[in-house]
Amino acid sequence: MNSRVLIVDDDPGIGEVVELFLRAEGFDTRVATSGPEALIAFDEYHPNLVLLDLNLPGLDGISVCRTIRESSGTPIIMLTARTDTQDIIHGLEAGADDYVEKPFNEKVLVARIKACMRRPVPNSTDALLVGDVVIDLRGHTVSRDGEPISLTPLEFELLHTLAARPTEVFSREALLEQVWGYQYKADTRLVNVHVQRLRSKIERDVDDPKIVLTVRGIGYRAGETNPA
Amino acid sequence: MTIFRRIARRFRSYWLSSLRLRMVAVSLGLSLVAVVILGGVLSYTIERNLFESRRNQIIAETQAVSGSVQAQFDGAIDARGFIDVEGANALAQNTIRATTNSPGLSGFALLRVPGQTSDQVMTSTSSVNFPVDVVSANLRTAIHDDRANVHVQSVELPGGIPGIATGTNIDVPTAGRYDLVFVYTLADVAQNLAFVQYALGIGGILFVAFTGLIVWTVSTRAIRPIMMTAATAERFAAGNLGERISVEGHDVSATLATSFNRMAESIEGQITTLATLSTLQQQFVSDVSHELRTPLTTIKLATSMLYQNRKSFDKDTKRAAELLEVQVARFENLLGELLELSRIDAGAADLESEQVSPASVAQACIDNVATLAATHKTPITLHAPGGHGVVELDARRIRRILLNFLSNAIDHGEGKPIEVWVDSNADAVSFAVRDHGVGMTETEVDRVFDRFWRADPSRQRKTGGTGLGLAIAAGDARVHGGVIDVWSRPNEGACFRLTLPRAGVTEFVSPLGLPPEEETHA
């Protein structure tokens, strides 16, 4: 069965032309042109990925993004026409996994979609421990003291990447490559915003992180694994 | 020495800065002079009057008493022509005691004039504690020379008290001539005078103090409008365009306030208009960004689809698809740069600093253009004597600037080696890109940041720049608080140097020369 992509953009031209390309790439697609329509389509269509324009009639893209994130970790890629950095940051903070700036070309878009859909194959170990957080790779769940913590696939992948090699410090660029699948220099704010989101879910004290540590000037690494 | 100088300098600066201080100081000085002159004149006049009247009183008394004493002696002769001089003397003393009433008489004496022979001698007498020493020979000689009048002399009594001695001649029948001498103390007069001077002094000080206070108050009232205007102008200059002065009355200060307010009104109006225009422009740029980008995306994707299927078209349509593909890409590029430039112009560009190492940023940029450089057979080398530490930089902007430098260098470098330099000092970080290509003349260097300007329009461009690259680079540098310097000579190549201050630094010197030279270490 083909992967389903929900395309949300108020401009029907874009929806149509993107549909043409994605179908050629073997995706199933559906187009929504307003915020409320996008939410209805999301519930009915159960897409594997959402392409979301931020500027939408009815309900803006950020709100749509936030609403989807309340119930689902489905990858969301923002389509942004405004390169104002605040819009991008707001979108990422609302839970978007990645963004593509208009005007994009189809190769970039397809690459981003594929990278977002690529999910980790659990390796031989069953579980990883970071601090007091247990990462169950088979069940694709994260828990602390038996309490499950809900993470999006992207956040899970980010945590998994750091935890898999606990002694290593990952630069933002390395994380962009391994987690987001970027092969070239990209926006390191993606990493910053998602690390913040991840921390807000798994850290006991966001201001004093113990699970995802910042290494000043270099990047991030996993916290101490052996509990004190 | 230096402390005095520092105090003097501080005082001088305070003096120059306070209008009120100067007004008060000047009026204090002037009133002090007035008080001193007035006090001097008053004190002198009062002194003269006090002493003069006392002197006259004393002379009159001496005259009267000596007249009575003389009469007494004259009347003491009995019918036989005899006189009991000692008895008369005692009587005379009683008369003197009874008739003197002027204050300050400290004593009197009836002294025999020496060097005379007479039938009998009357004993010289004096009152108790008569300060006989103060009666000078001069006075007695004067009495001797002029027997008719009273003679006066200022004397100093024991203890430095001022006094007056008077004397006159008394003829004692059968006993010869005697000097009747009085000594008066002027202690009370001196005391009165001291009191008057004390009062004058106190009055003077009070007067000066009140003058100061009055001038302070008056000047405060007088310069308050000026101070208010100054303070308001200061706040206005600091950016509070709504600042106005309240206008009271119709005097000159009201005129000042009114015209200041009118000026402020007109400036505020103009600035608001400009700000509105700027906001409108910013909004417009933002709108254009969205409105153009969305259809452009459709155009681009559709073009891409046509282009990919061009082989199935006939020859002309195929060519049209190719042209479309190239021009859409160019249009996109141009639009992107134009919007970026507008954003910088509108001041809407924010700095997004992160901790990066300048050398690694430069290396990443070199890697980025590696393919392009290889096609032009241009070797690029990185020289980084410094800049390996971590610095707060907006890496995105720095990359954009360096990529622009590099693509220009490759474009104009004629395949000759390109050097990229990175160095830092305490104040700044610097990047430089040096090529050894065609170079530019001085006039060309001057125009290099102009929009849409190209060094040689006839030349074939290799990297398809828009002519906005360096204008954007200059804007990026400005947003970052830095500068771009250019060096170039025809046929010797060019060097573009970006210098960025470290956080919080305003004045800085680039750590790199222009163009940078390999240091020759001993």
Low-confidence spans of chain B: none
CATH topology of the largest domain in chain A: Rossmann fold
Q: Biggest sheet of chain A, in brief?
A: 5 strands, parallel
Strand portion of chain B, in percent? Answer: 15-25%
Task: Please summarize the sheet with the most strands of chain B.
Answer: 5 strands, antiparallel
Gyration radius of chain B (Cα, Å) is 55 Å
> How many distinct domains of chain A?
2
Note the beta-strand portion of chain A. 15-25%
Shape of chain A: globular
CATH architecture annotation name of the largest domain in chain B: 2-Layer Sandwich
Unreliable sequence segments of chain A: none
Rounded mean pLDDT of chain A is 85
Task: Explain what you see.
The complex is a heterodimer of chains A (228) and B (522). In chain A, 40% of the residues lie in helices and 21% in strands. By secondary structure, chain A is α/β, with parallel strands linked by helices. Chain A has 2 domains: 114 residues, Rossmann fold, CATH 3.40.50.2300; 96 residues, Arc Repressor Mutant, subunit A (Orthogonal Bundle), CATH 1.10.10. In chain A, the strands form 3 sheets. In chain A, strands 2-1-3-4-5 form a 5-stranded parallel β-sheet, with helices on both faces. A 4-stranded antiparallel β-sheet of chain A has the order 6-7-8-9, covered by helices on one side. A 3-stranded antiparallel β-sheet of chain A has the order 10-12-11. In chain A, helix 6 packs across helix 8. The longest helix of chain A has 14 residues. Chain A is globular and about 50 Å long. By secondary structure, chain B is α+β, with helices and mostly antiparallel strands. Chain B folds into 3 domains: 173 residues, Beta-Lactamase (2-Layer Sandwich), CATH 3.30.450; 93 residues, Orthogonal Bundle (Helix Hairpins), CATH 1.10.287; 148 residues, Histidine kinase-like ATPase, C-terminal domain (Heat Shock Protein 90), CATH 3.30.565. In chain B, the strands form 3 sheets. Chain B has a 5-stranded antiparallel β-sheet, with helices on both faces. In chain B, a hairpin with a 3-residue loop joins strand 4 and strand 5. In chain B, helix 6 runs antiparallel to helix 7. The radius of gyration of chain B is 55 Å and the shape is rod-shaped. Chain B starts with a helix and ends in a 21-residue tail after the last strand. The mean pLDDT of chain B is 85. At the A-B interface, helix 1 of A face helix 6, strand 6 and helix 10 of B.
